[in-house]
Amino acid sequence: MDGPNMMTCAICLEYFKDPSTIPCGHNFCLACINLHWDRQSKQGTSLDCPKCKQDFPSKPQLCRNMDLKELVEGVGSSGLYNAEVVAARADGGSDAPRDRPPCHRHGKPVVFFCNRDKMAVCCECVVKECAQHDKSMLEEERQNQEMILQKKEKDIERLIAETEKSLEDLSENIDQAKVNLQQTSSWVSTKFSSFIKSLVQKQEATERFMEEQSHSTMADAQSRHSQLEERVQRLQENQEQIQALRGLSDTQLIQESRFVKVPQFQDVSTEVNPGLQERLSAVTDVLTRVSKLLHEDLERAVGTALADRQGSPQDKRPILAVVPSPAAPFVPGLREGLDTYRCALTFDPCTANANLSLSHGNTRVEHLTSGPRLLPPDEARFDHTWQVMCSQGFQQGVHYWEMDVSKPWAFVGVRHIMVQSLFRFRK
């Protein structure tokens, strides 16, 4: 064994500090061998010699090797040892540690890891600054950290796989959503186009029918009109004949008057009734229901969809507002005789559906798209239909009121006090 190896601790690879001899005869730094055995005790393994691996049943009593200490100190002071060690490391010898920077405190190789300071330390740090700290061998700490890094790498690989799977699922869902949106858009557009086309066709057919009925009715009426004109002309001729007889002599008047006859005619109706109302009653009923679907139900549905998309209170405007106006200005010629029976009506908030909002002293009701309001329960309230009753009721007599509508139409109803159902007609 050469000089440097004889004076070098096999654990820290530095020359000895407080060299101690263990029972097998090998020498180590006192701090290094104690740290080695403490680590083995924590791991539950038997204590052994780091060089020859001889086991010891218990921790041996350590004694300083004073002769070796003096020898090392003598060689160290001459500078020979450090130069030889540096040369050995430069040659890449087996005892050379990893390419580690030296201790920044003492300039010596780092072989331990201080768990409290989280840094690599040398043997002198272990004896001085880190004497009371929890420490481990640098190689052991490296292995522990490599195991931790391996686990983290596996976690990252798992997250990458999960993220790629989520990305794949999202891409598939986006493609499916595009298909669904296209199908829905196409279906809605087709329905609207089909509905409009059908309405136009039915409108044209109905208008042709009404035109034919108008021509037929007018032709019949004109025929009766001509018939009555001919009758008047014939009667006038008879009247002229009678007047001419008055200028004759008595004998001639008596003889000629026997030939004067009063013509007999069949009755000619003067009624002109096209009968369109009766014949188109089914059509008008359907149009009424369709109008309600378009102007109320469909408009409410579209308004709700737009409100959900925009989410702005300004976008949730009322789509139908009914404003009774008892004090509406009088229009001459239209309300003659009715003003006497005028009455002021207000809405009853206890009956208003939660989707209706009353204002202006309960004289205005708005149909909103912002969703139902929270209202106290009331037996008189309309729960399932968007309706509201007036507070006033009438037992007898004639009554007159007016209302303004913000849209082309609204449903107005009158309910008998003994009848729960509501009879409605279109205004």
TrEMBL record:
Residues 135-180, 218-245 form a coiled coil. Residues 325-427 form the B30.2/SPRY domain. Gene3D superfamilies: 2.60.120.920, Classic Zinc Finger, Zinc/RING finger domain, C3HC4 (zinc finger). The keyword Phosphoprotein does not apply. Transmembrane segments: none annotated. Keywords: Coiled coil, Metal-binding, Zinc, Zinc-finger. InterPro entries: B30.2/SPRY, B30.2/SPRY_sf, Butyrophylin_SPRY, ConA-like_dom_sf, E3_ubiq-ligase_TRIM/RNF, PRY, TRIM8/14/16/25/29/45/65_CC, Znf_RING. GO terms for molecular function: zinc ion binding. One of its GO terms (cellular component) is cytoplasm. This is Uncharacterized protein. It comes from Knipowitschia caucasica.
